[in-house]
Fold Homoserine O-acetyltransferase.
Amino acid sequence: MPLRLPDRLPAIDILKRENIFVMDNSRAHSQDIRPLRIVILNLMPLKITTETDLIRLLSNTPLQLDINFMKLKSHTPKNTPIEHMMMFYRDFESMRHEKFDGMIITGAPVETMDYEQVTYWDEIVDIFNWARTHVTSTLYICWAAQAGLYHYYGVPKYPLEKKMFGIFEQHPLQPQMPIFRGFDDTFMMPHSRHTEIHKEDILAHPELELIAESEESGVSIVMARGGREFFITGHLEYSPNTLDNEYKRDFGVRSDVELPRNYYRNDDPSQPPLVTWRAHANLFYSNWINYYVYQETPFDINKIE
């Protein structure tokens, strides 16, 4: 798909080498098409990596997307050059009066903290509330999914005895839904988290629909407001080497590091990962863009409410 990206964004060159079609703003302006406006609130430490992972998945549709990056005013990232943030990101406050067809809010490395202890919690709550009236459909990923469920519905999170780390089989509970169109009876999803949400807490809220779960990793995907909100506890966006990088970064440094499950060939970290989730990841994001953003958003973006 033709993705409209800021000129000189590092992801452009990376994805072109993978034969993924992207275009910068200079070329996109020559096309007389109303693109879908997508905003990404990137809370992950390695922002360039996360940008590339998400853009890779968003590229698998014929629709034109105008990608925007949002940052928090109340938090300064330590692992991304300030020049990159200044060039490609805008504070939420400067975007408050804009509307977007779709939004993605990533995970964040703060899951072991109480929500209210997170230094930028007040701003996150402000953004969550804003998204409900300024975005057609929003994907909440990992910590953002837990935080969104807590803020909107009071769903608590629970600490795990050991990290949920690896690739786990998931089961669509409502396979007839458009978000699962083209899916098999099972699909795989990467997880990397120290906390979880419980199924009974989701089922206690009639406004929430549990639409995918796993015998190993538990609650997988929750939908609300007819698809205007999806809460995903794992990381379909992860590239093949993400868990490998995380494991080798933490092994020998942290006491709770175990081999990621169902990931390395023959459970041997000297061998490459066995990639089992990418096809469904691409399909999930394409279905979201098609059925829950493109087909639901008004042509006049200002009519989103």
